[in-house]
Specification:
mainly alpha, 5 helices, transmembrane, membrane
């Protein structure tokens, strides 16, 4: 059951990424603007809508965050499915995330108002690597904690 649920989490997350990538440019921009409005509500002294670089930062941060989660989810699913080295699982998780990032950018080439960008693949890959790194750090911490005498 753990194996199935962990792979379902990966598939659902990939579907969410696909759904968000399938939004036409105007809708996607509106969603980012909504995030800026929410941040502005929390920090009213700054009007974030006036700064294009902040809008870009939010959009690229969403890429990084989405793939950070995807990388970690791949690690969890691979742990439940394959009894191989941690290094090999990390490699598979990274390559899988990287290939999905490429397919996501190619997909965006066919969505009105969107474009596929190699820089987004790099940002997505960085996010996946960070997610995998966080998973590895937590895994090492937990295993060292379990080995320490009590």
């Amino acid at each position: 059951m753990k194996k199935i649920s962990s792979w379902c989490a990966v598939i659902i997350w990939m579907a969410l990424i696909f759904y968000l990538s399938h939004q036409p440019g105007g809708e996607s921009s509106h969603l980012s603007g909504g995030v800026l409005t929410f941040i502005h509500a929390l920090i009213p002294m700054f009007d974030l809508h006036e700064n294009e670089w902040i809008h870009t930062f939010v959009r690229k941060g969403a890429h990084l965050g989405a793939y950070l989660i995807l990388g970690a989810l791949f690690m969890i699913a691979l742990r439940s499915s394959y009894q191989t080295t941690l290094r090999k699982r990390a490699f598979i998780a990274f390559i899988s995330s990287f290939l999905y990032a490429i397919s996501d950018e190619v997909h965006q080439l066919f969505v009105p108002g969107r474009s596929g960008q190699a820089t987004d693949v790099l940002i997505d890959s960085l996010g996946a690597a960070i997610g995998i790194g966080i998973y590895l750090a937590i895994s090492r911490f937990m295993s060292s904690r379990n080995r320490s005498p009590r």
